[in-house]
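Sequence only, no structure available. Ideas?
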Amino acid sequence: MERLTPLFTSPSSPVPSPCLSRIVYCISTCMTSAITAEIKSRAKAAFIGLAIGDSLGAPVEFMTASEIRAEYGILQEIVGGGWLRLKPGQVTDDTEMSLCIARALAAGGGWDLKGIGDNFAAWLKSRPVDVGDTCRRGIRNYMLNGVMETPFNQWDAGNGAVMRMLPVALYTLGDDALLEKCAVEQARITHNHPFSDAACIFFGRLVHLAILGYSRNRIRRELEGLFSVSDNFRFDNYRGLATGYVVDTMQTVMHYFFRSRDFEECLVSTVNQGGDADTTGAIAGALAGAFYGMDEIPKRWIKRMDRRVIDEVSLLAEKLLTFSPLARGGLKAG
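Reply:
I predicted one. C-alpha cells follow.
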C-alpha cells in the first residue's frame, strides 16, 4: 500500500531524455538467441523471489524498524499475521497484480494491454486482501470508462506500478525499446508520473541484466541513468525511509541489494527496514532472484509458501520467456 507525496504540479514528458536512451547490451559472441537453462532458472527465481519477498514482508508492513526488533528481533521466517492477518505463505497485491499481467500476456500470446486491464478489473472485483488507493482508482477508471491511461497526477509517484513490473521484464527480455514501451503502458493504467515511469523502466533493465548474468558492478552502473532522472533516487546516503513513495522504495531496495551477499540477506535486511515492507520485499526478491538464481533461495521459505502460487509463477515465468525477443531472435541494441 502506498503513501504518496506530491512532486509536480504540471505534466512533463514520461521520462526525461537520458532515461529514454537505449541500452546497448554488450553481449559476447557466444550469447545466442536461445533461452538457456540458466536464464530459465533465473527467471523462475525472480518470480518466486517476488512472491517470497511479498509474503516475508507483509506481516511487518507499516511497522518501523525498531517496532520490528521489539516484536521479532530479526524477522527471517515467513510467519503470516500482520495488520492483514495473513496465513503463512499468503501473498498480497504485489504478487497478485504481477500475476494479473503474466496471465494476460500468457493468454494473449503477446502484449495485450486490454487483457491486463481486464485481469486487473477481475482481480479488484474479487475483493483482494489488499489494494493501494492509486491502483484502485486507476482500475475503477478503466472499468467505468475504458481508460487505458490514467491522467497525470502529482500524487501518483507511488510504487504500485513498479511492484508489478517483473512479468513485463520477462516478456521484453532482449529488447530495451520494447521494455520502455510496455513498462510505461502498464504503469499508466494506474500511475502517471515521471518518477513512476522511470522506476519501472530502470527496474526492468536491472532485471534484464541480472537474468543475463551481468555483474553487480554492471548493474550498479545502469542506475546512473535513473539518477539522471532525479538525484532523489540516489541511495549512497540512505536515510532509512521505506515508504510507498517510489523514490523511497527504490532507495531501500537498491541499498540492501548492493550491500548484501546473498538472496536471504538481501530480503531479510530489506523487510526488517519496515515501512511498505511487502512491496520492498517483493521488488528486492525479484531482483535478487534474478541475480542469485534458484539455488540461493532458501528451501525452507519455498516450503512455507502457498504451493499454488509457487507453481503458477514458475510456469508463467517460463511461458513469458518464450514470447521474449531473446527467444525469438536475439538481443536488440539501441
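DSSP finds 16 helices and no strands in the chain.
Hope that gets you unstuck.
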